[in-house]
Write a structure and sequence with these properties.
The protein is of the alpha/beta class. Helix content is 42%, strand content 7%. It contains eight helices and four strands. It has a four-stranded parallel β-sheet, with helices on both faces. Helix 1 links the parallel strand 1 and strand 2. It is globular, with a radius of gyration of 17 Å. The N and C termini lie far apart (38 Å).
Length: 197
Amino acid sequence: MLSVKEAIIVEGRYDKITLSQLVDTPIIETGGFRVFKDKEKQNLIRTIAKKRGILILTDSDSAGFVIRNFLRGAIPDGEIKHAYIPQLSGKEKRKEHSSKEGFLGVEGLSQELLADAIRRSGAEIIGEDRAEVKPEITKSDLYDLGLTGTENSAEKRQRLLKSLNMPTYLTTNAMLSALNCLYSLKELKELLNNSDT
């Protein structure tokens, strides 16, 4: 079990149940889009963020990113971290049909994938040495790599995101944040050199 300093924010009850088998930290449910109107839940999340920090762990579908972006705008940068899960096709065991977008959510992922996402987020795991801080990938690096501001950069970003099993609809800023959680600049350059992007 991982003892995580930050409280973890998830979308729903089944995400919380799955995660509670892996982590020893408070897990707060947003109730999906209800968090947009629930001022008490927003205040609770802000208070916890100020006290111990929060880690956002939402599904990799468009709804998960809407919730993530809402919370990103509501919490100061120094109090929030992001864990990104891969965008994998599939269906959770308890569901009869796959989700609208056909991707597994937090509740459908293995403990190993979830633990990896938490570790790569930069969350403080009590009792574990902090992972080596990777050099940050900047917007300038994305430009130099042809991922922004150049001809066909949008298509190149789409191909890269797809090859990394990441949501292809990420904005440039969201992609930058996710890349910094998952890769060093050197690793990103290697991925681009070894792919069709």
